[in-house]
Specification:
Helix content is 31%, strand content 40%. The protein has helices at residues 33-46, 79-88, 108-127, 147-156, 181-192; strands spanning 4-8, 12-18, 21-29, 52-59, 65-68, 94-101, 129-142, 160-166, 170-177, 197-209, 212-214. Strands 1, 7, 8, 9, 10 and 11 form a six-stranded antiparallel β-sheet that branches. Strands 2-3-6-4-5 form a five-stranded antiparallel β-sheet, with helices on both faces.
């Protein structure tokens, strides 16, 4: 699993008119090439009367899969510009389709590149660029006498407190960045004088938007 990667938050679209041509930028977060192809086909079916439906997508930990098509536009004027927008934003697992309805005015090579770049850009803005960060959920069990102190220590150190359950003992559920788990263990042992039980649970990606964690 990737410790951290950038993608888009949601499937979305936006549109713009450039020299009477209508450009509609669609974007979707994806997890496989099959999902990307399905998304592209959906947009092509929706806009089967469009002049062009230009797709590009990037998938994989190191962007191993990169695909694009000019869909009938002059070579290098459409698909590559869309792909470059994805790559310049350092995004993973993203598919974009820019649909064009020709408005009667030819844009030229430079104009097409700028137009498809803009179409991809407005799609990303609509989808909202996010960072997916890998965390581990850690359960900390302590006696009630440590409740207030430990809660304060966890929050002061900047860890994400998912919740607290009250049983015969107190159970803290904490999200810890995957690289910080050992440091967190050390902190807990220090803060409780080793009067604790620490249980590591599953890994989970949390979503960061504009520097804040949001919950889906």
């Amino acid at each position: 699993m990737i410790n951290e990667y950038r993608t888009v938050y949601q499937e979305a679209y936006d549109e713009i008119i450039i020299e009477k041509s209508r450009f509609i930028g669609y974007v979707k977060p994806i997890t496989s090439e099959e999902e990307a192809i399905e998304f592209i086909e959906k947009i092509k079916t929706k806009h089967k009367d469009a002049t062009h439906n230009v797709p590009a997508y990037v998938i994989g930990k190191n962007n191993e899969i990169q695909r694009y098509s000019d869909d009938g536009e002059p070579t290098g004027t459409a698909g590559i510009p869309v792909l470059e927008v994805i790559k310049k934003e350092n995004l993973n697992n993203v598919a974009i389709v820019v649909t064009r309805y020709f408005g009667g005015i030819k844009l030229g090579v430079g104009g097409l590149v700028r137009a498809y770049t803009k179409g991809a850009r407005i799609a990303l803005d609509a989808g909202k660029i996010i960072t997916k960060i890998l965390y581990k959920e850690v359960i900390v069990k302590v006696d009630y006498t440590l409740l207030g102190k430990l809660q304060n220590d966890i929050l002061q150190a900047g860890y994400i407190l998912k919740g607290i359950e009250y049983h015969e003992i107190v159970e803290f559920s904490v999200y810890v960045k995957i690289d910080d788990v050992e440091k967190f263990r050390s902190h807990i042992i220090e803060w409780t004088n080793a009067r604790c039980e620490i249980i590591e649970k599953e890994n989970i990606y949390l979503t960061e938007l504009d520097g804040k964690i949001i919950y889906d």
